[in-house]
Amino acid sequence: xxxxxxxxxxxxxxxxxxxxxxxxxxxxxxxxxxxxxxxxxxxxxxxxxxxxxxxxxxxxxxxxxxxxxxxxxxxxxxxxxxxxxx
Length: 86
What we know:
mainly alpha
């Protein structure tokens, strides 16, 4: 799930809103541009705007996997090539 800040940045980018606007102003202008009348918290309003423009929320990054220990793999036998001298 995206944070409020990420949602505001999505709205800012998708609707071409000024980078000088604060979060409240971005959400208010997004509501106006999208013709939405939403009551509730800023998060509720931002969610409604993001849903209305159909922008998928960024996927959660997967956790890093760190493998510790020794890697066990078969060891190839050396291949010897002999050439017969004339």
